[in-house]
Design goal:
single chain; alpha/beta; 5-stranded parallel sheet
């Protein structure tokens, strides 16, 4: 049985959170808000050392400079590698059942309160996969907030992750600076031996189901958190109307925030952060991959409306 939520003063600055399991356009929203709301502070994964995700040396150096300016040398290079300033570690522990709600609230508050107070601008906007397992505690951390959790068709999400090579695909050097995602073994679905014998593809299938299920269940009946399909924003024929509706929901946190609809025209044609294209599209998957996907993912695919 979980203890009662930890009680203390909440973070007062209006806050907007964009989160997901990655490969869903969170970087896009950071750039969009930064452009459309110059009075706000819009950051993308400020607690993640992103140096290695940029191929070009100039882009890597530029990213390091930006992060050092935003979060500071101590947070980025000392507290983060030691696991003391990274929300995703808290999400992972929450999903694994390693910490209860009260402890989760306390940890998130302690990590973000002083930082959000020090950054200039309002509202504070953070696009960060680190919140994927924290959606059920945001009410206890922030006095005023809106959040969007993005889900993407499992077929495309898995393809993107197979190409990107991060989840369950980090090399030994990357693992030194990165967290370890929860596994099917953590959920009690399989033994550790079975998990270790699985292909990376099958691991991703199970992660898409179990981690998305956790997030979806945690936002049920919460009027301040919205479940959003990636495809509705980036692929749908009505994508600009859907984007406008989402932005209006997120910006409803403050009546003084205004959206210039004309100014977002063309934004959805911009490719902010893509992946390589080595792993094929779903129609070209092997029979084994298709069978594994359908067996594991079809129930959630149907629930969300992808099938």
């Amino acid at each position: 049985m979980e203890s009662k939520p930890y009680s203390y003063e909440k973070i007062e600055k209006p806050t907007i959170i964009i989160t997901s399991l990655g490969r869903t356009g969170t970087k896009f929203f950071q750039a969009l808000f930064e452009s459309q709301l110059p009075e706000a502070c819009s950051l993308h994964e400020p607690d993640v050392f992103n140096y290695f995700q940029y191929k070009k040396g100039k882009e890597r150096i530029s990213q390091v400079k930006i992060q050092l300016k935003e979060v500071g040398l101590f947070n980025l290079l000392i507290r983060k590698p030691l696991g003391r300033w990274s929300l995703i570690n808290i999400s992972d522990d929450r999903v694994r059942g390693a910490i209860d709600q009260s402890s989760t609230v306390k940890k998130v508050y302690n990590q973000r309160d002083s930082f959000i107070k020090t950054v200039a601008g309002s509202p504070y906007i953070e696009s960060n996969i680190g919140y994927y397992g924290l959606l059920d505690v945001l009410d206890n951390v922030f006095s005023q907030f809106r959040a969007a959790y993005f889900i993407r068709d499992g077929r495309d999400w898995i393809q993107s992750h197979m190409n990107w090579g991060q989840m369950y695909g980090k090399n030994q050097f990357q693992k030194i600076f990165a967290h370890t995602w929860p596994t099917a073994h953590d959920f009690g679905d399989v033994t550790i031996e079975t998990w270790e014998s699985m292909s990376r593809f099958e691991k991703l299938c199970r992660a898409w189901v179990r981690l998305n299920e956790f997030a979806i269940n945690s936002i049920a009946d919460n009027p301040f958190v919205r479940l959003v399909k990636f495809e509705d924003i980036f692929i749908s024929d009505n994508r600009y109307q859907n984007l406008e509706d989402l932005l209006n929901f997120l910006l409803s946190i403050d009546n003084s925030l205004e959206l210039d609809v004309d100014s977002i025209n063309g934004w959805l044609e911009k490719r902010i952060h893509g992946s390589q294209e080595n792993f094929p599209d779903f129609p070209d998957w092997s029979k084994i991959h298709k069978a594994q996907f359908h067996e594991i993912c079809d129930p959630l695919m149907k629930y969300v409306g992808y099938l």
